[in-house]
Amino acid sequence: MKEISLEVLQDAAHRLMFELSDEELKTLYEEFQTLKKQMETIGKIEGVDEAEPMTFPFACENSFLREDVAETPLDRDEALKNAGNVQDGQIKLPKVVG
After folding, report:
1. Distance CA 79, CA 10 (A)
2. Summary mean pLDDT of the chain
3. Residue 37 within any structural domain of the chain
4. pLDDT confidence band for 1 (50 / 70 / 90)
5. Which of 9, 74, 94, 96 places its Cα 20 to 30 Å from the Cα of 48?
6. What span, in angstroms and rounded, lies between the C-alpha atoms of 25 and 6?
């Protein structure tokens, strides 16, 4: 892993297109040092490499989902009949990004 330095953090901020003051950069560096110590502590836990990674902290069952059954799709006119604004057989949406 690349060593975290003030220069690395400044470069990352620049690539993300925002500026950090010297004080903010110093605070961010100190937070990364704390995070690095925490990760080293976690790495020292016996058997941590054998633990299965979790994507969610609780058991999650999706038993409420229905079976996927292929059916005849709606024709285009039926699918578009309740759309507020239709153009060229498609739903016309307002522009979202500049």
Report:
1. 51
2. 89
3. yes
4. low
5. 9
6. 7
**Residue 35: how many other CB atoms lie within 10 Å:** 11
Does some domain include residue 16? yes
How is residue 65 written in tokens?
A: 């989902």
- Going by C-alpha positions, the residue among 32, 43, 27 that lies closest to residue 3 is 32
In a domain, 64, yes or no: no
Confidence of residue 2 (pLDDT cuts 50, 70, 90): confident
pLDDT category at 68 given cuts 50, 70, 90 is confident
Domain region containing 21: 6-49
pLDDT of 39-58, one tens digit each?
999 999 999 889 888 888 88
Is position 18 within any domain? yes
What are the CA-CA distances from residue 12 to residues 2, 30, 63 (Å)? 12, 16, 43
Count of domains observed in the chain:
1
All residues at 6 or more sequence positions from 1 whose CB lies less than 8 Å from its CB, including other chains: none
